[in-house]
Amino acid sequence: MLWAEGHTAPPPLDRNEDGNVLPPEGGWQGSLTFTKRDLDQRYADLAPKGQVDLVVIGCPQASLEELRITASALRSHMEMGRRVPDHRLWVFTSGENYALAEADGTIELLEEGGALLLKDTCPEVTPYNRSKYNHLLTNSLKAEHYLTSGLNRLPTSVMPIQDCVAHAIDPSLSTGPVPVLTPKAQPQHASAKQHQTGEASLTGSGLRSQADFTVRGRALVTDVPITYLGYVNRDSGVIEEPGHPLDGVAIEDTVLVYPKGSGSTVAPYVLMGLIYTGKGPKAVVNRDICPLTLPACSLLGVPYGHGFDNDPCLAVNTGDTVEFRRTPDGVVLEVVERVQP
User: What is the CATH code of the structural domain delimited by 201-337?
Assistant: First the structure.
């Protein structure tokens, strides 16, 4: 359970005489203090350094409040006779929020001011014309994380909405060469894997949407979650995450074994794209049921299993030949031949 003071419902815990929440039995699992000073420092770190080519609002889609704040900021410039040149401001939102904003006049104001509205998509999965757009400015720290990752690899700066609109209106507010994107420091993911020998047969649960199957192939195994959006190359299927045990390894034509997916809920679309182009796995085995992986496997008929009696991430080695099959009671993952260390 995550509790964020002032943002989520109060935790069901006792308080002391000063009204402060007392730790649960066993203590807090962890805590994070993030202040306005910390936020201001992040804005300073990510402020534009070089010419901004395009401003994008919304991640994955702007809320109704964000649409109204953007329109209000734009209106203050329009009252001075200025508007966004060359559609330098792209605003991403959902179809539902678009309809609500259209009803109250927000959409009309944004479009009159020169903004381009995009529905039911997001800046992270949008293909950009790199002959025109090589440095983005956004209001979203999350968007910066994904836009600078493997998905687009675009230099991206971050500012509050009002400043983003100002930069969209006046390109001269940012000058200089386009910044060079440097690799971010990535955590070195801890792995508990050790080489296994001997027989192994694991039973787990399958999907009701899938009929009988039997798949035999080479296992590709990690005990670290896989982040599809941004860290699995959507063309080659190669994991591109420095610090990950499988960094630089392709998932193509493997029985892919990992705990679960992580990151954005766009992950199923990345995995589906790889499966469509023949760059995906022939089967997926998760330790935990994974809403970021399961939909792609269910829709495209890739054999899938989860909830095994033993952790498959530790019981199977990369390179083992395995057989994965559906049974009347669930699924079975069996090691046919062990790889030599």
Answer: 3.50.30.10
- Cα four-point dihedral sign 158, 159, 164, 167: negative
Q: Active-site residue numbers? A: 264
pLDDT per residue over 42-92, tens digit each?
Answer: 999 999 999 999 999 998 899 999 999 999 999 999 999 999 999 999 999
| DSSP-assigned states of every residue in 206-267 | --TT----EEEEEEEE-SS-B-HHHHB-TTT-BB--TTSTTTT-B-TTSEEEES-B-S-TTH
Joined together, the tokens standing for residue 134 give: 């090589």
CA atoms within 13 A on the CB side of 244: 22
Q: What's the rounded Cα separation, in Å, for the pair 293 and 270?
A: 10
Q: Are strands 54-62 and 89-93 parallel, antiparallel or unpaired?
A: parallel
Q: Is the pTM of this model over 0.70?
A: yes
Contact 156, 126 (CB under 8 A): no
Instruction: Give the pLDDT of residue 186.
Output: 63
Please list the residue range(s) of the chain that carry CATH number 3.30.499.10: 42-173
Amino acid identity, residue 203? T
Q: Which CATH class is domain 42-173?
A: alpha beta
d(C-alpha 162, C-alpha 64), whole Å: 16
